[in-house]
Amino acid sequence: MTQTWQGYVGNVSGVIELADASDRALYNWSVAQPKGEVYASTSEILVWANIQCFNFTAAGVYGDESGDGGTTNLNGTNLALLEAQFGLDSSDVDGVDETFSLTGPGTHGSFYTAGQEFSEGECRSTRIFGDSGKGEPGEFEEVLLYEPTTASVVFVSLIDNDLGGYDSGLHDFEMLVLEDGHGADIITTPYYFFVELA
């Protein structure tokens, strides 16, 4: 953990299940090599159908963007507001824009969130370091999303199976999330984690 970031690594296993509203299973399939995403947000309630790419230059006003899932937010939280929320100065070398600096084709793989498609390189992203000691294309990709109904930033790690991690261990995901440890702030930021298997 630094004054600005904390990291998480892990492995994902699970079961895909066909069940009713009372969680009674009609059938299930074990997922030995799961694909999907791990999500982290400071909000425990998210309207997944509204999820969008985070926009560094969003207007900074909180208008209704519901129904715009799968796009980029135009209003709401922007880079300046997000960095201020976590005690960052715009000149900090470990800021959000310095970390999530990748855009365009080849920067992150395509994925779906709650049925919303995000194409390759559509959102701001970064690559967390693997066993090579640097970020590699197609490995440990993390994407920055936004949920406008709750004005929540959502960090998304695309699941890879058993990749060599920063510590030479095998991990399915590695993820960075913001933390405000600046000045006298010693309170840790709680995050809620969600997993979507494909």
Jot down its keywords.
198 residues; globular; mainly beta; six-stranded antiparallel beta sheet; two-stranded antiparallel ribbon
Fold and architecture overview:
The protein is built from two helices and 14 strands; from the N terminus they run βββββααβββββββββ. It has one domain (5-197). The strands form five sheets. Strands 4, 5, 8, 9, 10 and 14 form a six-stranded antiparallel β-sheet that branches. The protein has a two-stranded antiparallel ribbon with strand order 1-13. The mean pLDDT is 93. The protein is mainly β and 198 residues long. A hairpin with a 2-residue loop joins strand 6 (111-113) and strand 7. The protein has helices at residues 79-85, 96-99, and strands spanning 5-10, 14-19, 25-31, 36-41, 52-53, 111-113, 116-118, 125-127, 141-147, 152-158, 163-164, 170-171, 173-178, 192-197.
Short description:
The chain is mainly beta and 198 residues long. The chain has two helices and 14 strands, in the order βββββααβββββββββ. The chain has one domain (5-197).
What is the CA-atom radius of gyration, in angstroms?
17 Å
Number of helices: 2
Shape: globular
User: What's the structural domain tally?
Assistant: 1
- The count of DSSP E runs of length 2 or more, i.e. the number of strands, is 14
Largest sheet: 6 strands, antiparallel
Which parts are unreliable, with pLDDT below 50 for 5 consecutive residues or more? none
Helix content: under 10%
Structural class: mainly beta
Order of helices and strands: EEEEEHHEEEEEEEEE
Please report the distance between the alpha carbons of the first and last residues: 30 Å
- Compute the average pLDDT: 93
Strand content: 25-35%
